[in-house]
Amino acid sequence: MKFPYAAKGVKNIFNAEILTLISTILGGIVTILAIVTLADANETTVVVSGIIMLVMSIATVVMLVVGGIINIVGYIQAARDEDGFKKAIYCTIFSIIFAFVAAFFINSTGFLGWLGTVINLISQVLQLLVFIFSVSGLMNLSAKCNRSDMIQKGANILKLISGIYIAVLIVIVLTRVFRENAFNTSLATIFSVITIILSVVLYFLYLSYLSKAKKMLGEN
Prior knowledge:
Blueprint lengths: L3 H35 L4 H37 L6 H18 L6 H35 L3 H32 L5 H35 L1
Helix pairs in contact: 1-2, 1-6, 2-3, 3-4, 4-5, 4-6, 5-6
């Protein structure tokens, strides 16, 4: 095996991203519940939804942190065979920190709500950089393995991921704009669902590339 550390690292990154995908879905569901609850004056509904959101928020944060730690370990391992992963390490650390802080403002409105949205946007941009540095690193390893197909696939994945992330960032802002107005609850909910769908598509694209890269490294 030419790149034993990268092989171990990519395997850890793959597992970590599955946890991140689950936490992203849970986080999206919490946002939708918060929007719907805000428009519901029923006290029982508010209490029940509040308990559900609290439990799901805790689960989201735990999986986000655990996945982040495994991710960092994976990037550190992969960086021993490919320097391109080093930048992903720092971006992952700061992305986790910002995402962790943003989680506490997810149900807020007004200034705190917008503050949470801005912090979330910063976390998302850092996560995009993680994807870019990671895929670029995998493309470099693909070149060393003489896998032109993986290089081309990586280039295509980067374009798709970048496009999806831009859409996600726009939708996150739109969701905050519309959830501030009770008359636009339905629109805010729709935007939240769109964010979840885009995020799931993004992670599946990334996971598919990681899976192929993991197989490639195991064969070389």
